[in-house]
Amino acid sequence: MFQTCAFCVIFLFGIMGNCLVIATFALYRRLHLRSMTDVFLFHLALADLLLLLTLPLQAVDTHMGWVFSVGLCKAMRACYAINTYSGLLLLACISVDRYMVVARAQEMLRWRSQILKAGKLAAVGVWVVAILVSMPEILFSGVDVSGGEAYCVMQKSGYVKMATNGAIIAVFCLSFFVMVMCYSSIARVLWEGHAHRRGKQWHRQRTLKLMLTLVLVFLLFQLPYTVVLYLKMAGQFCGLLLEYITCSLAYARCCLNPILYALVGVRFRKDVLQLMHDSGCPCGLHLGLKTLNFTSISASSPALTLVSACSPTSPTERSYSSSDAVPSIKFQFPGSK
Predict the structure, then answer these.
(1) N- to C-terminal Cα distance for the chain?
(2) In Å, what is the CA distance from 268 to each residue of 4, 295, 305?
(3) Burial state string for 123-135 with b = 16 or more CB within 10 A and e = fewer than 16
(4) What angle in degrees, to the nearest 10, is found between the helix axes of 2-28 and 36-52?
(5) pLDDT for res 204
(6) Reduced 3-state DSSP string for the chain
(7) What domains lie within the chain, and their CATH numbers?
C-alpha cells in the first residue's frame, strides 16, 4: 500500500514537470535544439517521462499482482531499465557539458555547430548503451505465478539478476564520479575567477550552492536504493519495506530533475510563464515581465547562466542589469544569442 500511494504521487508530479519541459521545447522552440544543454535536457525529460509512465503498472503489480499480458510485462520492464540507465548517463553528460562551457569556453564558441552535432550523437549513444545494458531485462522478463498470484519479474535468477543489479550500481557510480569531477573543476574555476573579479560574490555563491544541491540530491535519492541493490547482490537480506522506500526515493528524483536542471533556468522560466499566459492565466505574462526586468541573461539552464557569468575565459560580453544592484555590470557570456 505504501509503494502504491508513493508511486501515484510521484507519477502525478513527475508527469507535470517533465511534460512542462517537453512542452516548452515543442511550442516555443519547435524542437530545434540549439545547444548541447538543450539536447541533454530534452532527452533527460523524455527518459524521466517514459520511466514515470511505468509507475501505474508497477503499482498495480505490487498491490494486486500482474493482471495484464506477458507482452506488456516485458515492455514495462524494458522501459524501466532503458530509461533508468539513460537518465543516469544523461546527468553525467550534463555535468560534462557545463564543465566545457566554463573551462573550454573559447573552443565551445569556435566549434559551436560541430559541438551541437556531437551533443546529438552523444545523446543517441546514451540510448544505445542503455538498450544494450538493458538486454537481460528485455530478454528474461516475464510473468511468474507464486501462491496463486502472478507477478511481472525477471524469470532468470542467479548470475543474470546479479548482473542486472551490478549494471545499475556501475552506472550510478560512473555518473556520480563524473558529476563530482566536473562540478569540482567548475568550482575551482569559479574561485580562481573570483580572485580576478571583485563584486560578483553573490553569483559565485549561488552557483556553488546550486552545484552542491545537484550532487546532494543525486546522492540522497539514488544512493539508498543502490546500497540496497548491493546488499542483495552480497546475499544479505533487506526488508521489503526498506526496498520499497528506497525504490520510491529513486523514482522521486524524476520529479526534481525538471526543477533542478531546467525550470529554474531563465530561458525556461520565461517559456513556462509564456505558456501560462497562452493558456489563459493572466499572471503568467505579468510575472514574466518582472523576471525579465530583474535579469536579462538567458540560458538553457541555471548553471549555464550563473557559471558563464562568472567565467573568466568567456569571450563575449553582455550587459546585466538589476534593480537591486548597480545599473549595469559587464559579465562574460559564451555563445550569447
Answers:
(1) 50
(2) 32, 13, 11
(3) beebbeebeebbe
(4) 140
(5) 67
(6) CHHHHHHHHHHHHHHHHHHHHHHHHHHHCCCCCCCHHHHHHHHHHHHHHHHHCCHHHHHHHHHHCCCCCHHHHHHHHHHHHHHHHHHHHHHHHHHHHHHHHHHCHHHHHHCHHHHHHHHHHHHHHHHHHHHHHCHHHHHHEEEEEECCEEEEEECCCCHHHHHHHHHHHHHHHHHHHHHHHHHHHHHHHHHHHHHHCCCCHHHHHHHHHHHHHHHHHHHHHHHHHHHHHHHHHCCCCCCHHHHHHHHHHHHHHHHHHHHHHHHCCHHHHHHHHHHHHHCCCCHHHHHHHHHHHHCCCCCCCHHHHHHHHHCCCCCCEEEECCCCCCCCEEEECCCCC
(7) 2-332 (1.20.1070.10)
Cell of 71: 507482452
| Torsion sign, CA atoms 11, 137, 168, 243 | positive
Q: For residues 314 and 118, what is the distance between their CA atoms, to the nearest angstrom?
A: 21
Sign of CA dihedral 95, 36, 86, 246: positive
Instruction: Report the alpha-carbon distance of residue 4 to residue 59 in Å, rounded.
Output: 5
**Where do we find the cell 550587459?**
319
CA dist., res. 272 & res. 288, Å (int):
9
Q: Is 332 left (phi over 0), alpha (psi -120 to 50) or beta?
A: beta
| CB 283 within 8 Å of CB 276 | yes
Give per-residue pLDDT as tens, 16-63.
999 999 988 888 876 677 788 889 999 999 999 999 999 999 999 988
Report the alpha-carbon distance of residue 152 to residue 65 in Å, rounded: 8
In terms of C-beta density within 10 A (0-12 exposed, 13-18 middle, 19 or more buried), how is residue 223 classed? middle
Enter the pTM of the model: 0.81
Mean predicted lDDT score pLDDT of the chain: 79
In angstroms, the Cα distances linking 100 to 9, 188, 259, 287, 328 are: 36, 13, 22, 32, 27
How far apart are the C-alpha atoms of 307 and 93, rounded to whole Å? 17
